[in-house]
Amino acid sequence: MSRPLSTDEITEQLASLPGWTGSTDVISRAYAFPDFPTAITGVDRVAIEAEEMDHHPDIDIRWRTVTFALSTHSAGGVTQLDIELAHRIRLIAEELSAQ
């Protein structure tokens, strides 16, 4: 099991994840995709990555805006798994021209 990251570790890791914010409990980011179908494509692609990692985000879809919230519930907070998934989400969002 991954260990929870400290506040300092999270702050340091989020420096390479523009727009992501959070605490030791959860990290999150909202992305505005070009349109609703592209937002759903982004969610589908994140779902595949998450399934491969066996680590699943909370996802809120509002038209073309998708918010991802990451936390490792079994560890009681944010772990390196969450940081890795955030990086994968960032890449997908960039590929789909999300802001």
Describe the protein in words.
- By secondary structure, this protein is α+β, with helices and mostly antiparallel strands.
- The protein has one domain: Gyrase A, domain 2 (2-Layer Sandwich), CATH 3.30.1360.20.
- Helices cover 42% and strands 19% of the residues.
- It has helices at residues 7-14, 36-53, 80-95; strands at residues 21-22, 27-32, 58-62, 65-70.
- The chain has a 4-stranded antiparallel sheet with strand order 1-2-4-3, with helices on one face.
- A hairpin with a 4-residue loop joins strand 1 and strand 2.
- It is globular and about 35 Å long.
- It starts with 6 loop residues before the first helix and ends with a helix.
List keywords for this structure.
99 residues; alpha+beta; Gyrase A, domain 2; four-stranded antiparallel β-sheet; 42% helix; globular
Major beta sheet, strand line-up = 1-2-4-3
User: What are the segments in which pLDDT stays under 50 over at least 5 consecutive residues?
Assistant: none
Q: Please, what is the oligomeric state?
A: single chain
The assigned CATH architecture is 2-Layer Sandwich
Overall domain count: 1
How many angstroms separate the termini? 33 Å
Proportion of residues in extended strands = 15-25%
Give me the secondary-structure category. Answer: alpha+beta
Shape: globular
SSE pattern, N- to C-terminal: HEEHEEH
CATH superfamily: Transcriptional coactivator/pterin dehydratase
Rg measurement, Å:
13 Å
Total helical elements: 3
Mean pLDDT: 97
